[in-house]
Structures are given as C-alpha cells and as structure tokens.
Specification:
Layout lengths: L11 E4 L8 E10 L4 E6 L4 E6 L9 E6 L2 E2 L3 E3 L10 E6 L2 E6 L5 E2 L1
Antiparallel strand pairs: 1-2, 1-7, 2-3, 3-6, 4-5, 8-9, 9-10
C-alpha cells in the first residue's frame, strides 16, 4: 500500500523547521516506518551527520563518514517550479490523470 504524500523521490524541497531551516535539496529517498507510522525523507545536503566507521575491506583505514540522515516529511515543503519558493500541493484531474500542482502558482509539479 502506498500513501499519497505531498513529496516524492526526486522533488526539490525546502526545509521549514530545524537546524537546516531554509536549506533546499532534492529528495533522494522516502522511508516509511510501518510500525510507528513515521514517514521520513533523505534530502541531499540536509541533516548531515558524522558516522564513525571501523576499518573493513572497502575502507581499510576506517574513520569518519559524513552522510545525510532522514528528516520527517512534515518539516519539508516542495518548491514551486515557477516562483522558486515553498508551496503547498494540490491534486487535480488533467486528461484523465491526477496531477500534483503548486497552490501558489497553479503550475504542475512533475
């Protein structure tokens, strides 16, 4: 079962809360926790954490790895393709298909 979310993989989003507020990035992955009902997204360049790694066959030295951590989707808003600002999402029927559109400009979001 897939949920209808206001963001999808590949969307350009802006962070509207937290340490990275105002940062823009592309959604790399959507993570659904079925037990707890949390839906989080990994956004490129947002919520960077440092992970300590042991030496292994891929990385013989070990050390620190900087990578993106998940962000709750309630803290993300899609970017309007026309105005380049945060917007809300609506859905409407066009040519027999449901499309997402930006509420600010009315522009279809692909």
């Amino acid at each position: 079962m897939s949920l209808k979310l206001h963001i999808k993989k590949g969307d350009m989003v802006i962070v509207n809360a937290g340490d990275d507020k105002g940062t823009q990035g592309r959604v790399l992955e959507i993570i659904q926790d079925k037990k707890k009902g949390r839906i989080r997204a990994i956004v490129e360049g947002v919520n960077i954490v440092t992970k300590h790694t042991k030496p292994n066959s891929k990385n013989t030295n070990g050390g620190f790895v900087r990578k993106e951590a998940p962000v709750h989707i309630s803290n993300l808003n899609p970017i309007d393709p026309k105005e380049k600002k945060a917007t809300r999402i609506g859905r409407r029927l066009e040519n027999g298909k449901v499309v997402r559109y930006a509420k600010k400009s009315g522009e279809v979001i692909k």
